[in-house]
Design goal:
The strands form 4 sheets. A 6-stranded parallel beta sheet has the order 4-3-2-5-6-7. The protein has a 6-stranded parallel beta sheet with strand order 13-10-9-14-15-16. It is of the alpha/beta class and 537 residues long.
Length: 537
């Protein structure tokens, strides 16, 4: 086993015995074999596309299969066995319809029939299976591959809501196929990585259209952090459609529905917040779920990433859906969530109301740009000195308290924009306001990064300058592959001076890092005091 795709990889180098995330060597090998098979499928898909052959079912399968290998999504090795066989079958179906280069073994190999045999195959095609590859080329290949994983995740989220673009699938095939071509060098891979960022903007645009077109544009909303007496369901992950189904199917059943983790911003969507039993937010970020889920007296539904190994305290109360899987945890394909509802009704629920504080969410691009004139005037009058975008992934690794300290020390004439689960380092801080504009604006999930980009672009247009010339600094935290592709999107847009932490990716070599520094002045976070001094002077 060797895996270094996430920020928490062992010793900052790579997981070799078991994943820090909980991934077993067998699951790691099967995920490697699936990606290897998908690369062969991609070679066939590129050739098929050139021959005018396209299959929408294969496109959707490919994005889902790639998404399944993203950190904290599917830990169930038995689910990968048929997926690998299906990928090879689709590859062969396309090869029968188009002339493709079959010189690479990934295009012709046959997956074994059993799990143990596939594990053995996977052990031979992992990240470090070719000892002769140039380290910098491998670094760029992995950067591209992890970017594609994030892109596939956003494409799948969008497709669930009916939003697709064939150009996204075409790029995924072309980019995965390119990783098998020994003729590609540094320039080709850098170009493909930036192209991945560009295509991801389109995927996030589609996801934004799906979210807002289905559920309305988010509006500023107060969300209680307390609980209401009664039976309860907790929904974690990222999927708005799954949450909508839970809300529909629990109407009139005496159940209250709570969000956890990245589902917090769902409270701002008009078509979700209209449900009277959609009550509040419970807990914080994904890495705290073992403690928080154990204390929740109801059923728990995990949609998309990020699941951790369930403890015995709640293993019988948690359900997975969609691409999420954990061995021994009941999987409910949806959209019928009767098993989840029945479990919640059988559990005690909360015995009494408990009032907590309220926090605000719902500051998507529509809400922020709705007060653009007020914001622009505040900047011109120097009431607002600077904007900080502080967000990204949260995690358990030490060093993330930096983001709490940074936000607490940001001067009172500055506004903090945030998104994704990184917000949970400071989401409940009362930072006050500037002329009625809250100093802490929650834009949404990591899936809402498109909103943040549009806000920055709109402000640049209003001030007739480039985004890099705005009084705006980006201080980001990363953990998994969605964060990788968002970073590539920002680099594609030419955004410079990004601070990234809590540590830099283990898969980035010094030479590749130097390219990023020279072209984009990307830098690691320092201390809160040092970085504020450097930014504000």
């Amino acid at each position: 086993m060797f895996c270094y795709q996430c920020e928490q990889t062992a010793k900052g180098e790579g997981c070799t015995k078991i994943g820090v995330c909980g991934k077993t060597p067998d699951t790691a090998a099967l995920q490697d074999l699936l990606m290897y098979t998908l690369k062969g499928l991609s070679v066939a898909a590129v050739a098929a596309g050139q021959a005018g052959v396209r299959n929408a079912a294969i496109d959707r399968f490919t994005s889902k299969a790639i998404f399944s290998t993203l950190t904290n999504v599917d830990f169930d090795p038995d689910r990968f066995v048929p997926m690998i066989q299906q990928a090879a079958a689709y590859r062969d179906e396309l090869l029968a319809k188009a002339q493709a280069d079959t010189s690479h073994p990934a295009v012709t190999f046959k997956p074994a029939a059993t799990r143990d045999e596939q594990v053995a195959q996977g052990e031979g095609v992992g990240v470090r299976s070719n000892p002769d590859v140039n380290p910098d080329i491998l670094s760029l290949q992995e950067l591209l591959t992890y970017g594609i994983k994030g892109l596939a995740a956003y494409a799948d989220h969008a497709a669930i809501l009916g939003q697709e673009d064939d150009a996204i699938y075409t790029f995924i095939y072309e980019a995965l196929a390119a990783t098998l071509d020994p003729a590609n060098g540094v320039n080709e891979y850098v170009g493909l990585a930036l192209k991945c960022g560009e295509v991801n903007l389109r995927a996030m645009e589609l996801l934004d259209a799906g979210n807002t077109g289905t559920y309305g544009h988010p509006v500023p909303t107060k969300v209680p952090l307390g609980v209401r007496q009664g039976k309860a369901i907790l929904v974690s992950g990222h999927d708005l459609k799954d949450l909508e189904e839970i809300l529909k199917q629990t109407e009139g059943k005496g159940l209250n529905v709570y969000t956890h983790g990245e589902m917090l911003p769902c409270h701002g969507y008009p078509e979700l917040k209209k449900y009277g039993h959609f009550y509040g937010h419970y807990g914080t970020a994904w890495q705290n779920q073992a403690k928080e889920f154990a204390a929740f007296p109801g059923a728990i539904l995990m949609t998309t990433n990020c699941i951790q190994k369930p403890t015995e305290a709640y293993k019988d109360n948690i359900f997975t859906t969609g691409l999420v899987g954990w061995p021994g945890v009941q999987h409910v394909p949806g959209p019928d969530f009767t098993p989840v509802i029945d479990k919640a009704l059988a559990m005690p629920g909360f015995t009494a109301d408990s009032n907590g504080k309220e926090i605000m969410t719902g500051f998507g691009r529509n809400a922020v740009m709705g007060v653009a004139g007020q914001v622009i005037e505040a900047v011109k009058s120097k009431a607002i000195r600077h904007f900080f975008l502080v967000g990204g992934c949260d995690g358990a690794k030490s060093g993330r308290n930096y983001y709490t300290e940074l936000v607490e020390k940001i001067p009172s004439d500055c506004v903090v924009l945030t998104l994704a689960c990184g917000k949970f380092r400071f989401f409940d801080k009362d930072l006050g306001d500037i002329g009625g504009i809250p100093r802490l604006l929650d834009i949404g999930q990591c899936n809402d990064a498109y909103s943040a980009v549009q806000i920055a672009v709109a402000l640049a247009g209003a001030f007739e300058c480039g985004v890099n010339d705005l009084p705006l600094s980006m201080v980001l935290s990363w953990y998994e592959q969605k964060a990788c592709v968002i970073l590539l999107s920002l680099l594609h847009l030419g955004i410079k001076d990004i601070r990234l932490g809590p540590s830099l990716p283990a898969f980035i070599t010094p030479n590749v890092l130097n390219v990023l520094v020279e072209n984009f002045n990307i830098m690691p976070i320092g201390t809160a005091d040092e970085d504020l001094q450097a930014i504000l002077g």
